[in-house]
Amino acid sequence: MEFPVISKIYSENETVSLAEEFASGLKGGEKIVLNGELGAGKTFFIKKAANYLGIKNASSPTFALVNEYSGKFKIYHFDFYRINRIDEIYDIGFDDYLNDDEAVVFIEWGNLFPEILPHKRIEIEIKVLENFSREIIIKDIENI
What's the pLDDT at 57? Predict the structure, then answer.
C-alpha cells in the first residue's frame, strides 16, 4: 500500500477490506497512530488488521492502557483516551514498547499526547461522514 491513502468507506465490509490490505503490507516495527472521534471505528480497524495477522482476541485497551497480542507479529495496542497525564504512559513502560523493533504498535487517540508520539509513524485518521460513512486517511509521517 502506497501512502497517502484516502478512502471513502460505506460499510463495515469495506473497512475490513481496507484494514486487511493495510495489515498485509506490515513488516514489523511500524508505529501506527489512529485518530478520530469517539465511535469512528479506530478499534474496529485495529481488530480487523489484527485478525488478518492471526490475532482473534483483540479488544480495546481503554482501561488497561495497553494490550499485547501475538500472531504473525507481536502487537502492542495502546489507548490514550482515559489517560490524564503523560506520566501514566511512561509508568507502563511506553518507551520499552516503542523500542521493540519487531513489534507493531497501534496507538488510539494519539492526538491527545502528540508530543510523545514517534517521529516516524503511520497516521490513520477516521472521519465520520453523513449516513454513517467514513473517510479514512492513511499517511506516512516522519518529523525529524
Answer: 84
CATH of segment(s) 5-142: 3.40.50.300
Residues of the chain with pLDDT under 70: 143-144
Domain boundaries in the chain? 5-142
Q: How many CA atoms lie within 13 A of 124 on its CB side?
A: 26
Looking at the DSSP bridge assignments, the partners of residue 6 are 137
The pLDDT value given to residue 61? 77
Q: What pLDDT sits at residue 143?
A: 66
DSSP codes of every residue in 31-67:
EEEEE-STTSSHHHHHHHHHHHTT-------TTTSEE
Q: Using CA atoms, how far apart are residues 79 and 82, in angstroms rounded to an integer?
A: 8
**Radius of gyration, CA atoms only, the chain:** 14
